[in-house]
User: Which sequence fits this backbone?
């Protein structure tokens, strides 16, 4: 441990990382630099500064990264319609590359020997933080206290906090709080009663959304404008990427949009149950697919859908900066050149319903698609040869089996 003189810690100011800051000072006898990122978690981050100062930390980085997070990470992922295992919208996963990027940048700026994080040895985040850090700074030393110490429960962590006079918010007597992670894209919940997949979450666990049962009885309509696959305006008002997400989180939460209860397969090999609120992401994904349905060629759209699970898995597993993800991103971005126009959605009691879409780049031809007289735009007789050619192998095999 003596070879580490200075370490940059990804620091939220919460239970785990507050203890880690103190633990690093005591166990490694090194200087600690804290880095706190505002990526839209919806909580005041300045108190982290006071906590860090109370532990004698002199170099404290607190940065507003909301626009960079939305523009350079969430929006590119949304162009791919990325969902992991059919349900998870990757809210935690997509935040880790940005935090890792700034961690190693600050390490270089401050001359630090190492970086540290508060991810546990059972989770995905340890992989994401470290894979992304190594991709950007190959020789960086990573300290993961959860793989070294014996504070292996929330109760032990709280006892350590009491012993070292570390202030912890949301403390509820001896009851451990949920393990939560929030950013512009989502808020996640793990631990407590929901560790058992059979237990329904308590209603007061949900912080961003009203229950669909208690959502307004009148629907909310939104007109969402896309340019090259990205949302640029809502109801005619131009918005930056972060502002888009903040607005959609608010209106989506008010309508009970975006609750998910998932058992997922972690990269480290175990199944885990998590609950998520992703109001903005749920609306964005639905609207984006609607825009693509009008503007993307069929085979281009189908190829994107075939590649999407692999792309989502790369993000989930921590390979954002890997060459294969960057290759896929180039393909995805190329597909978005004509994905521009407007999508009208209706939000109602937990549902996002697409009710209209328009685009100057629309590939929809009413003259061909109509069930009325088409004026000769489509020759019905052409279908006979098309069907016979496509069924040739089936008819050939059937004849052979018949013999």
Assistant:
């Amino acid at each position: 441990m003596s070879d580490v003189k200075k370490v940059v810690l990804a620091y939220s100011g919460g239970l785990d990382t507050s203890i880690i800051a103190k633990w690093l000072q005591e166990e490694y006898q090194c200087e600690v630099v804290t880095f706190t990122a505002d990526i839209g978690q919806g909580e005041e981050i300045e108190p982290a500064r006071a906590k860090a100062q109370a532990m004698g930390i002199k170099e404290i980085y607190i940065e507003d990264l909301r626009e960079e997070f939305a523009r350079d990470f969430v929006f590119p992922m949304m162009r791919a319609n990325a969902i992991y295992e059919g349900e998870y919208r990757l809210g935690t996963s997509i935040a880790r590359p940005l935090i890792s990027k700034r961690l190693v940048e600050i390490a270089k700026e401050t001359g630090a020997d190492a970086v540290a994080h508060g991810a546990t040895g059972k989770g995905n985040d340890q992989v994401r933080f470290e894979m992304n850090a190594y991709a950007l700074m190959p020789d960086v030393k990573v300290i993961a206290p959860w793989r070294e110490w014996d504070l292996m429960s929330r109760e032990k962590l709280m006892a350590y906090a009491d012993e070292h006079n570390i202030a912890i918010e949301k403390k509820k007597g001896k009851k451990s709080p949920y393990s939560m992670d929030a950013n512009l894209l989502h808020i996640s919940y793990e631990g407590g009663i929901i560790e058992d997949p059979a237990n329904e979450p308590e209603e007061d666990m949900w912080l961003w959304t009203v229950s669909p049962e208690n959502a307004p009885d009148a629907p909310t309509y939104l007109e969402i404008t896309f340019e090259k696959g990205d949302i640029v305006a809502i109801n005619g008002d131009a918005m930056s990427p972060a502002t888009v997400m903040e607005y959609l989180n608010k209106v989506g939460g008010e309508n009970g949009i975006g609750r998910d209860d998932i058992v997922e397969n972690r990269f480290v090999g175990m199944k885990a149950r998590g609950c998520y609120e992703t109001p903005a992401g749920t609306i964005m994904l639905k609207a984006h697919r609607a825009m693509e349905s009008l503007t993307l060629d069929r085979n281009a759209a189908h190829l994107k859908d075939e590649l999407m699970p692999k792309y989502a898995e790369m993000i989930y597993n921590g390979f954002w900066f890997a060459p294969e993800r960057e290759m896929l991103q180039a393909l995805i971005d190329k597909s978005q050149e004509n994905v521009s126009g407007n999508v009208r959605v209706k939000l109602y009691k937990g549902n996002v319903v697409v009710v209209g879409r328009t685009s100057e780049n629309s590939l929809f031809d009413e003259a061909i698609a109509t069930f009325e007289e088409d004026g000769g735009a489509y020759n019905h007789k052409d279908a006979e040869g098309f069907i016979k050619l496509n069924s040739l192998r089936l008819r050939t095999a059937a004849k052979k089996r018949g013999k």
Summary: The chain has three domains: 6-66+91-179, 182-358, 369-402. The radius of gyration is 25 Å. Confidence is low (pLDDT under 50) at residues 171-176.
